[in-house]
């Protein structure tokens, strides 16, 4: 890696906090230029930057936008990952496989390609980090938007008693699916996969079911508690965020689903444990026979550790890629050292990087991080149209 001297640090890296970058339909020429320069700085083999800059300027003057080369799209998507300050798993940012689907904008085709994304990423359990980039937002055309927060989301149904069956995080998304005509399974369960919902102005919205064969799931079992394996608890293998906007060199890609592999705590300490998600800890503690008469017995913590053991154990048994928070914390610090050695800042959000269990046992806890926001990057999507509650 060629170090980036700070005196030629692209303007957008300091002067344009990305959180304020909105898609106005007009290209920010300075941001486009900064990106092209950054690409050439980090890839000196590309030759002098002037020729490409002249092309980009001419294209913007003629059409109001420009089209990334395949190399720019690949570099931009990888750097957007590298700049994701909430992600602990960035060591492998260079390995991101970029699927160029910029010609695709019809909702049904986007949904179909999301399923293909899942197949490529799942790879029979040997998870590959993948991003699929769909049509960009361009003047005069409309870009597709995926309503699902992730390609795989489990439905949530509110019962008459006010309780929730399924993943309560997805109550609004489930409501939206039902409103758009989704027929849930005859027998509703806690792990019903929601259909993909994609919209694009000027097109019919799409609602596409994902076939069970395309969703690799891992049933939970525990190395010491056989009863845990009989509860029917499971999770999906691929976390693929599908509602964030990818921004590269002034161009917005509102649909660009991407995935890595799971760190166990995401499932064991959040999805299955949070009291507003699957809330499994009180049940597990009871089954473990723990003394739950007071918080001071640490029954929650003891159940939490066993749930996290179950997640790591089950994924390993099933041959599905996963990582634990100790290993991943060390890898993150390796990444940070490499970035610093390359002369780059590595922005990180402490509150997201520190794992939700045993924080102080991991080395990422015991330091502070740069907090400047860099471009390219991923940004939260606006809430889906017709979605009653933000999610
Ligand atoms: N935390 C989210 C989940 O539990 C996934 C976020 C992305 N995670 C990842 N390992 N790439 O589904």
TrEMBL record:
<keyword id="KW-0479">Metal-binding</keyword>
<keyword id="KW-0349">Heme</keyword>
<dbReference type="GO" id="GO:0004517">
    <property type="term" value="F:nitric-oxide synthase activity"/>
</dbReference>
<dbReference type="InterPro" id="IPR044940">
    <property type="entry name" value="NOS_dom_2"/>
</dbReference>
<feature type="domain" description="Nitric oxide synthase (NOS)">
    <location>
        <begin position="86"/>
        <end position="93"/>
    </location>
</feature>
<dbReference type="GO" id="GO:0020037">
    <property type="term" value="F:heme binding"/>
</dbReference>
<protein>
    <recommendedName>
        <fullName>Nitric oxide synthase oxygenase</fullName>
        <ecNumber>1.14.14.47</ecNumber>
    </recommendedName>
</protein>
<feature type="region of interest" description="Disordered">
    <location>
        <begin position="1"/>
        <end position="24"/>
    </location>
</feature>
<comment type="similarity">
    <text>Belongs to the NOS family. Bacterial NOS oxygenase subfamily.</text>
</comment>
<comment type="function">
    <text>Catalyzes the production of nitric oxide.</text>
</comment>
<comment type="subunit">
    <text>Homodimer.</text>
</comment>
<keyword id="KW-0408">Iron</keyword>
<dbReference type="GO" id="GO:0046872">
    <property type="term" value="F:metal ion binding"/>
</dbReference>
<dbReference type="GO" id="GO:0006809">
    <property type="term" value="P:nitric oxide biosynthetic process"/>
</dbReference>
<dbReference type="InterPro" id="IPR036119">
    <property type="entry name" value="NOS_N_sf"/>
</dbReference>
<dbReference type="InterPro" id="IPR050607">
    <property type="entry name" value="NOS"/>
</dbReference>
<keyword id="KW-0560">Oxidoreductase</keyword>
<dbReference type="InterPro" id="IPR044944">
    <property type="entry name" value="NOS_dom_3"/>
</dbReference>
<dbReference type="InterPro" id="IPR004030">
    <property type="entry name" value="NOS_N"/>
</dbReference>
<dbReference type="InterPro" id="IPR044943">
    <property type="entry name" value="NOS_dom_1"/>
</dbReference>
<dbReference type="Pfam" id="PF02898">
    <property type="entry name" value="NO_synthase"/>
</dbReference>
<feature type="binding site" description="axial binding residue">
    <location>
        <position position="87"/>
    </location>
    <ligand>
        <name>heme</name>
    </ligand>
</feature>
<dbReference type="InterPro" id="IPR017142">
    <property type="entry name" value="Nitric_oxide_synthase_Oase-su"/>
</dbReference>
């Amino acid at each position: 890696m060629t170090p980036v001297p700070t005196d030629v640090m692209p303007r957008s890296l300091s002067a344009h906090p990305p959180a304020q970058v909105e898609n106005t339909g007009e290209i920010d020429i300075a941001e486009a230029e900064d990106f092209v320069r950054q690409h050439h700085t980090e890839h000196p083999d590309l030759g002098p930057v002037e020729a490409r800059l002249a092309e980009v300027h001419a294209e913007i003057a003629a059409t109001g936008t420009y089209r990334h080369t395949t190399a720019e799209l690949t570099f931009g998507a990888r750097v957007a990952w590298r700049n994701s300050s909430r992600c602990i798993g960035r060591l492998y940012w260079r390995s991101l496989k970029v699927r160029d689907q910029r010609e695709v904008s019809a909702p049904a085709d986007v949904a179909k390609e999301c399923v293909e994304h899942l197949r490529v990423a799942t790879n029979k359990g040997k998870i590959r980090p993948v991003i699929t980039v769909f049509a960009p937002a361009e003047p005069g055309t409309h870009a597709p938007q995926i309503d699902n927060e992730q390609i795989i989301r489990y439905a949530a149904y509110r019962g008459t008693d006010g309780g929730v069956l399924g993943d309560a995080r997805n109550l609004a998304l489930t409501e939206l699916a039902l409103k758009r005509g989704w027929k849930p399974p005859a027998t509703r369960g806690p792990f019903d996969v929601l259909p993909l919902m994609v919209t694009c102005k000027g097109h019919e919205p799409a609602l596409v079911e994902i076939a069970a064969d395309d969703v690799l799931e891992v049933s939970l079992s525990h190395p010491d508690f056989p009863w845990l394996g009989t509860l029917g608890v499971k999770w999906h293998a691929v976390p693929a965020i599908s509602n964030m906007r990818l921004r590269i060199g002034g161009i917005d890609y509102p649909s660009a689903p991407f995935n890595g592999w799971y760190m166990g705590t995401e499932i064991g300490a959040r999805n299955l444990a949070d009291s507003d998600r699957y809330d499994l800890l009180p049940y597990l503690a009871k089954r473990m026979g723990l003394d739950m008469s007071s918080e001071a017995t640490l029954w929650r913590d003891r159940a939490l550790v066993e749930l996290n053991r179950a997640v790591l154990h089950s994924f390993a048994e099933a041959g599905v890629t996963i990582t634990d928070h100790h290993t991943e914390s060390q890898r993150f610090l390796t990444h940070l050292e490499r970035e610093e050695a390359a002369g780059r800042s590595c922005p990180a959000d402490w509150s997201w990087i520190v794992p939700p269990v045993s924080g102080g046992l991991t080395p990422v806890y015991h330091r502070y991080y740069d907090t400047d926001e860099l471009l390219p990057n991923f940004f939260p999507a606006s809430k889906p149209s017709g979605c009653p509650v933000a999610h």
